[in-house]
Automatic annotation (TrEMBL):
This is Nuclease SbcCD subunit C. InterPro entries: DNA_S_DndD, P-loop_NTPase, Rad50/SbcC_AAA. It comes from the Bacteria. Residues 5-278 form the Rad50/SbcC-type AAA domain. Keywords: Coiled coil.
Length: 650
């Protein structure tokens, strides 16, 4: 099914004529509007056009009368107080255009709707008369909630367990409801036959059937009790976890760890002493000299000057000897000799200045080099070692102080005893509830055995009855095969349910893994064939309690369930989602935008505000968007109208 057009006239908040026309082949249709502007009204209009009084929107409303429900949709500003809707759609199997036209007048004593169905624009009287049968065949109303739903309300479909409405819808999907109807019809046929044949005594059979009904009710009560106990246990375990955490915070583990902390303190004291010894070792070597570092630097400068003076004197003496030898050899009266003697006199005059600087330290070359090594390298190394040792010593002292504070902790023993007593009491409550649950489980198992036994007796009573009816060939044949059909139906129902539930469980898990943020949280989903409740398991087949899931994870699981139900229904139908992202966080929202909306159907209509599918999500979804509309609200007329485009973001 593909929706082609929705026409609204004076319907709900839509005053006058309003029309949504869908022409694009892309899968996503985006309809934007602020809250209270008519998005939910769009969804209710589609449901009303298709199902009328069978619409789940009406069944779940506060109206106990369908006429009043219709009257509530007549726009208050309508001149003639007549509301009407028209829905055009095609079916995949034939491509013909179906048009459902519904109208009604409000403010009357008894509001009644007029229904007309057209096929390719021409009124089709047969479809008009039998519309409810036709649409139930194409899209059963029980399945419609899987395709048309409100994102904010779907959390109510599943609480801690699947609710009754959802269970009935699942049964409809599995085909079980049809089998139940067939079983009841066969039972009614048998009852009619036996009522006409008074000579057949069915008192024993009726008594056994009543016993079976009582057992079935008791079994259902036990299931409810077990679910309630499971909820209580989950709540108590959460409280116990909080109590144990607070117990630890108040010093509940100090006693247990005391010996360990004392040993750790001794080890730290030993490390501290070793660190102090290393510092003493440094004190006996170069470290004290750091105190006179500036003096040593001055001494080093003076030693350098003395070294320079000594080197200069030695050089002058050597040069003087060489010049004297040269003069003696060449003669004193030569011009060169005179120049050299003058040069030497100049040098000696300059060296007299150096001779005035008195030599104080007279360091040897080795001593001078040792002093330079000390100042240039060893002092830096000593300072680094001192800094490291100081840091270690400080850390050891801090840890020792923390341990002392921990060991000196002022613990309120009376408060701890009270807290410990509370923990014990909660554990005892949990143990009692688990024992009670175990007891109820045993009772349920016994009831199941009794139910099987009484069912066997019912079948035996029917067989006994058949033996007494051998003379009535026609009735005998009918009753015999009806009874046989009942037995076959029971077996077929069980096998069909198990097969369909297995398929549904796998599909739910597959859908969840496509959109879940934590891919490794849930790997498997199982559905209890008796209660139809969901059970979740991780990759190690360990059950995950539903209460441990976050609100977003629960909502994703509900969406996965709806998606899986739609897939397993094998129906090619449009999906309409009001408030599609609800209260999901950004990660979960993007998962739906990327993996869910474009693929759930050939036509997915999303009814959203600008803060749900905002500009960023709009761009992420844009390549899949065909038609888009914005519902605008007029403050003066207090009504809504339709504009093309999604908030003008195209």
């Amino acid at each position: 099914m593909i929706i082609k057009r929705l026409y609204l006239k004076d319907f709900g908040i839509y005053n006058g004529e309003n029309e949504f026309i869908f022409t694009n082949d892309k899968s996503v249709v985006l309809i934007g509007g602020m809250n209270g502007r008519g998005k939910t009204t769009f969804l209710e209009a589609v449901l009303l056009a298709l199902y009328g009084s069978n619409s789940f929107a009406y069944k779940e409303s506060d109206f106990n009368n369908y006429g009043r429900y219709l009257d509530s949709f007549v726009n208050k500003n309508s001149v003639d107080q007549i509301a009407s809707i028209e829905l055009d759609f095609t079916l995949e199997n034939n491509g013909q255009v179906y048009t459902v036209v519904k109208s009604w007048k409000g403010n009357t004593l008894r509001t009644a709707e007029n229904v007309t169905v057209k096929l390719n624009g021409e009124v089709e009287s047969f479809l008009t008369e039998h519309w409810n049968i036709f649409i139930e065949n194409e899209l059963p109303s029980e399945l419609s909630r899987f395709f048309f739903f409100d994102g904010e309300k779907i959390s109510k479909l599943i609480g801690k367990n699947i609710n009754t409405q959802m269970k009935e819808s699942i049964k409809a999907l599995l085909g079980i409801s049809v089998l139940d109807t067939l079983d009841h019809d066969i039972e009614r046929i048998l009852k009619n036959i036996t009522t006409e044949k008074n000579d057949f005594d069915l008192e024993e059979s009726d008594r056994l059937k009543k016993q079976r009904q009582v057992l079935e009710q008791e079994l259902q009560n036990k299931e409810s009790s077990m679910n309630e106990l499971s909820n209580q246990l989950d709540s108590l375990r959460k409280i116990l976890e909080e109590k144990e955490t607070n117990f630890k915070k108040k010093g509940g583990e100090v006693t247990a760890q005391r010996e360990q902390q004392i040993k750790k303190r001794s080890d730290l004291e030993l490390l501290k002493e070793q660190c102090q010894k290393k510092m003493l070792d440094l004190s006996s070597n170069e470290m004290p000299l750091l105190l006179v570092k500036k003096n040593l630097e001055s001494i080093n400068e003076k030693v350098a000057e003395e070294y320079q003076a000594s080197f200069t004197q030695s050089s002058i003496q050597w040069l003087d000897d060489k010049i004297l030898a040269f003069v003696n050899e060449s003669g004193k009266n030569t011009q060169e000799s005179q120049v050299l003697e003058n040069f030497m006199e100049f040098i000696k005059a300059d060296s007299k200045v150096l001779e005035k600087n008195q030599s104080i330290f007279q360091f040897s070359e080795k001593s001078r080099m040792q002093l330079e090594e000390l100042l240039n390298n060893k002092f830096e190394e000593v300072q680094k070692n001192i800094a490291n040792l100081n840091s270690e010593l400080k850390e050891y002292k801090k840890e020792i102080e923390n341990i002392n504070n921990y060991l000196d902790l002022d613990i309120d023993q009376e408060d701890l005893q009270n807290r410990h007593r509370e923990i014990i009491e909660i554990n005892q409550k949990i143990a009692r509830l688990e024992q009670k649950k175990c007891f109820i489980t045993q009772e349920r198992n016994e009831l199941e055995k009794s139910l099987k036994s009484i069912t066997l007796k019912v079948n035996q009573s029917v067989e006994k009855l058949l033996k007494n009816m051998e003379e009535r060939d026609e009735d005998h044949r009918l009753i015999k095969y009806s009874s046989l059909a009942t037995k076959i139906l029971a077996v077929f129902k069980e096998r069909l349910q198990n097969l369909k539930l297995e398929e549904l469980s796998k599909t739910i898990a597959q859908c969840y893994l496509k959109i879940a943020n934590k891919k490794n949280l849930i790997s498997e989903v199982r559905i209890d064939p008796q209660t139809l409740n969901l059970h979740y398991f991780d990759s190690n087949s360990k059950e995950i309690h539903g209460s441990s899931l976050s609100a977003g994870e629960k909502q994703l699981m509900i969406i996965s369930l709806l998606w899986a139900l739609a897939i397993c229904s094998k129906k090619q139908l449009p999906v309409i989602i009001d408030t599609p992202l609800s209260r999901l966080d950004s990660n979960h929202r993007y998962a739906l935008i990327d993996q869910y909306f474009p693929y759930i159907s050939k036509q997915t209509i999303l009814l959203s505000t600008d803060t749900e599918i905002d500009h960023g999500y709009f761009l992420a979804l844009k390549e899949n968007i065909g038609d888009s509309f914005t519902i605008k609200y007029d403050q003066e007329t207090k009504s809504s109208r339709i504009e093309k485009g999604y908030f003008g973001w195209e």
